[in-house]
Amino acid sequence: MIQTSVYNYINVLDKAADASWLRNEAISNNIANVDTPGYKRQDVDFESQLTKALGMSRYETMDSKVAGVTLSNLKPSTYTDYSGYSYRLDGNNVDIDSENVALANNQLKYQALITSVNQEFANLKSVMK
């Protein structure tokens, strides 16, 4: 991470991309264990932490909200989703169709985040010219 206010958006986008990558791994594990008896699906929580870090003030600009984010508080966490729930007799709660949709959604999100990081660097480059 780069420690200057010029890179605030890049640092937050970097954290979001890391969380998206972690979610991709969790979804891939879910798909790999679709037939494992007793396996419970995993997911990653990051969006709620980001929302909390950005704050709910309507009267602040996004620039000031992003500048106020403490990056060390933005840590994605993996959790077991619906651990007490299973619609199958073997105790597994992974639905392959839902996981495939979640994987496609997450891949699009990751690509958008990387595109945004690249755009931020392009903006900085054009300012430096």
Number of helices: 4
Which strand-content bin applies to the residues?
A: 5-15%
Mean pLDDT: 89
Largest sheet: 2 strands, antiparallel
How many distinct domains?
1
Descriptive overview:
- This protein has four helices and two strands; from the N terminus they run αβααβα.
- With 129 residues, the chain is mainly α.
- The chain has one domain.
- Helix 1 packs antiparallel against helix 4.
- It starts with 7 loop residues before the first helix and ends with a helix.
Note the main attributes of this structure.
mainly alpha, 6% strand, single chain, two-stranded antiparallel ribbon, 129 residues, 56% helix
Give a brief description.
With 129 residues, the protein is mainly alpha-helical. Helix content is 56%, strand content 6%.
Q: What topology emerges from the helices and strands here?
A:
Layout: H1 8-32, E1 42-45, H2 47-54, H3 62-67, E2 77-80, H4 96-128
Antiparallel strand pairs: 1-2
Helix pairs in contact: 1-4
